[in-house]
C-alpha cells in the first residue's frame, strides 16, 4: 500500500513539474512576443485610457469625455490596474510589454488551474498534463495574450479560480472574492456568476452565505464608488456596451451572409443580446444545479456558449473558451486551438484585427462550427453519467466531527470531489 501511494504521489509530483515548466516557457515566450511587437491598436488605446485615468481618477473616468479614444467599456478594477500601470510606465517600464503582462500571467495561472481541475476528475495524471500543456501552448492564447493583450484572459482566470476554490478546495469565501474579481476586470464572465451561486447553494447554507459575503463585499468595494458617483456613465459605457459594429465572426456574420434585414440584426445586437445572455446563464445554472461538483465544466460551457452566440466581434474574444475547452476534454481544446488559432495568427500577422479577408472569415466560420461541436460535447459530458446525489455541505463542523480515516486512506471530507457526484473525466483521446 505504501509503495503504491508513494508511486502515485511521485507521478503527481512529476506531472506538476512538467506543467509548471511548460507553463513558464509559454509565459516567457508570450512576454517575448509582447516585448518585440507593436501589437494592435488596443495597446495604444489602453495608454490613452491610462493617461486619462491618471489625469482624473479611476472613478470619474466614466464621465470623462475622450473623443480621441473608443468607448471606455472596462469595469472599475481595470481602471485601478491601468492607474498602477501608468505609474510604472512613468518610472520607465516599457508600455507595450507592460499592458500585455496581466493577460500572459493570467494564462500561466489558468494552465495550473486546468491541471488541478482535470487531475481531480481524470483517472490518470497524464490526462491532466496533456490538457494543461495543451492550454499552455494553445495558439489562440499565444496570439490574444502575447500579441493583443487586453483583459479577457484575466477575467477568465478569475472565473475558473472561483469554480475551483468553491468545488475542489471547498473555500466558498475565497471563491466569492474571485467571482467578484472576474466581473470587475471584464464583464464577460457574468454569465458564469449565477452558476457559481447555484453550486454554492447546493453545497449548503453556510457555503452560500460565505460565497455571497465574499462576492458582495468585494463587489461593493470595487463597484460601489462608481455606482454612487457616475452611475449613468457606468451604465452606458459598461453595462450596455454592445461591442463594435464589426461582423467577421459568429451569428451576426452569418445573418449578414444570409441577407437578413439590418433592422433584425440591429434588434439582436441591441436589446436582443440581453436575452441571449440570460439564456446562457440559465444553461449554466441548470448544469451547476444538476452537478454542482462539476461547476468548472459548467463555467467552460458558458464561456463557450457566450462566444458562440455573441453578437459582437473581436479577435481577443476568441480567448474566452480557449483554456476552458481543455477542461471539457483534450480533443476539444486542441481542435478549437488549432483552427481558431490559425485564424487569429493570420489576422494579427497582417496588422488588421478589424478587417478580415474572405478566406479568414471562411476559416472563422469553420472555427465557429468547431466551437459549437465542442460546446455540445461539454453539455453532453456534464449531463452524462449517473444522476447526482445530494450535495455535501461545506461546513467546518463536518471537518471537526468526521471520523479519522485509517492511514493510507483519504477521509471522505478530505476528498475534493464528493463521491455522490461522480465527476466526468475529460477524454485524453
UniProtKB/TrEMBL annotation:
<feature type="transmembrane region" description="Helical">
    <location>
        <begin position="98"/>
        <end position="118"/>
    </location>
</feature>
<feature type="transmembrane region" description="Helical">
    <location>
        <begin position="127"/>
        <end position="147"/>
    </location>
</feature>
<keyword id="KW-1133">Transmembrane helix</keyword>
<keyword id="KW-0472">Membrane</keyword>
<feature type="transmembrane region" description="Helical">
    <location>
        <begin position="325"/>
        <end position="349"/>
    </location>
</feature>
<feature type="compositionally biased region" description="Polar residues">
    <location>
        <begin position="419"/>
        <end position="429"/>
    </location>
</feature>
<feature type="transmembrane region" description="Helical">
    <location>
        <begin position="296"/>
        <end position="319"/>
    </location>
</feature>
<protein>
    <recommendedName>
        <fullName>DUF2029 domain-containing protein</fullName>
    </recommendedName>
</protein>
<feature type="transmembrane region" description="Helical">
    <location>
        <begin position="208"/>
        <end position="228"/>
    </location>
</feature>
<feature type="region of interest" description="Disordered">
    <location>
        <begin position="390"/>
        <end position="429"/>
    </location>
</feature>
<feature type="transmembrane region" description="Helical">
    <location>
        <begin position="272"/>
        <end position="289"/>
    </location>
</feature>
<feature type="transmembrane region" description="Helical">
    <location>
        <begin position="173"/>
        <end position="201"/>
    </location>
</feature>
<keyword id="KW-0812">Transmembrane</keyword>
<feature type="transmembrane region" description="Helical">
    <location>
        <begin position="361"/>
        <end position="383"/>
    </location>
</feature>
Amino acid at each position: 500500500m505504501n509503495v503504491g501511494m508513494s508511486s502515485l504521489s511521485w507521478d503527481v509530483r512529476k506531472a506538476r513539474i512538467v506543467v509548471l515548466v511548460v507553463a513558464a516557457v509559454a509565459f516567457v515566450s508570450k512576454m517575448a512576443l509582447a516585448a518585440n511587437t507593436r501589437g494592435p491598436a488596443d495597446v495604444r488605446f489602453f495608454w490613452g485610457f491610462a493617461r486619462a485615468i491618471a489625469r482624473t481618477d479611476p472613478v470619474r473616468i466614466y464621465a470623462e469625455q475622450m473623443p480621441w479614444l473608443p468607448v471606455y467599456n472596462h469595469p472599475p478594477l481595470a481602471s485601478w490596474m491601468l492607474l498602477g500601470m501608468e505609474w510604472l510606465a512613468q518610472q520607465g517600464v516599457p508600455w507595450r510589454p507592460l499592458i500585455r503582462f496581466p493577460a500572459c500571467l493570467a494564462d500561466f495561472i489558468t494552465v495550473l488551474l486546468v491541471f488541478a481541475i482535470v487531475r481531480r476528475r481524470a483517472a490518470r495524471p497524464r490526462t491532466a498534463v496533456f490538457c494543461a500543456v495543451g492550454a499552455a501552448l494553445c495558439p489562440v492564447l499565444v496570439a490574444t495574450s502575447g500579441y493583443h493583450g487586453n483583459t479577457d484572459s484575466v477575467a477568465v482566470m478569475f472565473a475558473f479560480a472561483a469554480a475551483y476554490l468553491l468545488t475542489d478546495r471547498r473555500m466558498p469565501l475565497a471563491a466569492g472574492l474571485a467571482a467578484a474579481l472576474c466581473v470587475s476586470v471584464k464583464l464577460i464572465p457574468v454569465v458564469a456568476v449565477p452558476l457559481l451561486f447555484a453550486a454554492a447553494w447546493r453545497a449548503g447554507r453556510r457555503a452560500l452565505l460565505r460565497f455571497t459575503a465574499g462576492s458582495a463585499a468585494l463587489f461593493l468595494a470595487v463597484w460601489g464608488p462608481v455606482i454612487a458617483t457616475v452611475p449613468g456613465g457606468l451604465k452606458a459605457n459598461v453595462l450596455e456596451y454592445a461591442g463594435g459594429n464589426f461582423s467577421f465572426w459568429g451569428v451576426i456574420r452569418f445573418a449578414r451572409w444570409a441577407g437578413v434585414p439590418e433592422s433584425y440584426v440591429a434588434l439582436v445586437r441591441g436589446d436582443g443580446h440581453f436575452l441571449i445572455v440570460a439564456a446562457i446563464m440559465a444553461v449554466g445554472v441548470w448544469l451547476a444545479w444538476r452537478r454542482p461538483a462539476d461547476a468548472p465544466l459548467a463555467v467552460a460551457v458558458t464561456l463557450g456558449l457566450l462566444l458562440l452566440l455573441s453578437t459582437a466581434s473581436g479577435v481577443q474574444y476568441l480567448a474566452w473558451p480557449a483554456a476552458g475547452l481543455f477542461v471539457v476534454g483534450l480533443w476539444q481544446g486542441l481542435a478549437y486551438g488549432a483552427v481558431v488559432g490559425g485564424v487569429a495568427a493570420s489576422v494579427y500577422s497582417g496588422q488588421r484585427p478589424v478587417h478580415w479577408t474572405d478566406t479568414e472569415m471562411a476559416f472563422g466560420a469553420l472555427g465557429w462550427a468547431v466551437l459549437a461541436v465542442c460546446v455540445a460535447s461539454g453539455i453532453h459530458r456534464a449531463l452524462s453519467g449517473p444522476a447526482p446525489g445530494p450535495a455535501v455541505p461545506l461546513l467546518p463542523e463536518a471537518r471537526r466531527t468526521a471520523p479519522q480515516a485509517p492511514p493510507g486512506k483519504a477521509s471522505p471530507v478530505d476528498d475534493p470531489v464528493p463521491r455522490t457526484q461522480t465527476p466526468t473525466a475529460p477524454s485524453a483521446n
